[in-house]
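Notebook p. 47: complex prediction with protoporphyrin IX containing FE.
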Amino acid sequence: MFEIESLPIWISVPLSLIILVIILVATAYIYTTWTHTIFKKMGIPDPTPGLMGMLPLHAEKGIIELDLEVTKKYGPVSGIFIGRLPAMLISDTGLIKQIFVQEFSNFVNRNQFVPNVNIMKRAIANVEDNEWRAMRSVISPTFSSGKMRDMSSLINMCVGNMVDSFGEKVDPIKSVKLDEICQAYTMDVIAATAFGIDADCQKNPEFDFFVNAKKTLQFSFSAPIVVLCLMFPILTDICDYFNLGYMPRDCVKYFTDTVHHAIQERKQETSNKRDLLQLMLNTHKESTNASAKQMTEDEILANSLFFIMAGFDTTSITLGFALHCLATNPEIQDKAYEEITQKIGKEAPTYDNLKNLTYIDMIISETLRMYPAATRLNRRANNDTNINGYDIPNGMIIMVPIYTIHRDPAHWEDPDKFVPERFSAENKDKINPYAYMPFGLGPRNCVGMRLANLVTKMAIVALLQNFRFIQSPETEVTPKLSKGGFVRSENGIYLRIERRNV
Ligand code: HEM
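Predicted complex, structure tokens below:
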């Protein structure tokens, strides 16, 4: 019989290595493709995945285009692969209602696709089951309408800085890229409302807080750690062991130190601040519910960090698109200005006077329909279950393509047209509530929704009181959207700004 040891060493060593490589490649191949037959067994159509699942397609087309194509070709319930992980891509609103609301107890958690540093595992978006329930009941009241009213004066200061910044960009010919100004505004808001920090990123774009937050959000499907963990989810455990995550280590350290320092300062003084950090520190004092859990310092830290990530970019994207939609629909901008002039005139926007501006609410809702900042919702089945005839196994990931549904002509007449009247008091009852989900759905929807709406509305009102936004030759009327996890303009939003004769 043939034995490797009997061969000369110069043949046996390379031969052994070749055999080892073949075994490793074959094992990796079997491991990564093992899941590929699951949808055939479930009777659900899916695009045949390649060796790397659909990662190359995610990178090449981007999430939005991929979801539109898959849904068009395979229907409202299909299978996709995120690395080796199978996920059901669902745009059937009946099924969505069942999963996100009626059967919520079976779908409480999100799937975490990429490794997170240990500290972030304590954030509300990442904790699971009863831990999430307890944390949500503590955090929700910090975003109540009363708390938002308290925070509105903090937001107003940031609005003032932004108006000044736009004022400097007024030009009869040149257009302005809005993205950085909107980002500086929402970063100021998060720094002020979450930590009581007066950042003024409009004047200090190099402020560490701002620079690190932007770096933290540079997530890409093609980053090596992301690709490896999606292809070999087992590596996530190894990353956990070494406390590795997709966020740059120096950013995590910067924010951890900043928040830790702020917490220590607050502990030493009797603070009457009304920002989110103080509200979280106060929760146990203010709670009337004996079973309500006091948050640990790590949890406060994790959530403060998460608020920066969840709140800053999403809100600035929404504001940028709202201004774009107003500039490209000047008659709607005029109507919005008319409402502001009639109802609050030149008064500075406040929590209370904003309530009268219902047309501005309609504009924000329609902006979020056309450009929902988040691309997909995600839940994971806790048990084997049967929903509407689909046998969904324990662990199955559910993905809901928000953009696809928001642009589906079956739910929205003329879906690519900006029509705020869809959300008027007379019309909004006609909207299928499971076809509109910019802030998610069900008990685990966006906890910061009130803050996001307030921040966007205050900015739009103050800006329209001072300026007119005008489409220019640089404006992409239909913005090209980026391929990443957020619905953002790939090339930036360019508009011309004119000062109103006030
Ligand atoms: C226009 C701005 C925003 C948009 C479009 C947005 C959208 C979303 C979406 C789609 C989700 C997932 C919901 C689901 O799975 O059903 C979410 C979750 C979340 N958002 Fe927002 N968000 C915005 C602003 C904010 C702000 C300002 C904060 C806080 C400062 C925030 C904090 C959160 C948190 C903590 C979660 C996780 C909730 C949980 O797991 O219980 N968001 N957001």
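Notes: The mean pLDDT is 88. The domain at 124-230+247-374+414-499 is CATH 1.10.630.10 (Cytochrome p450).
Next step: compare against the earlier run before touching the bench.
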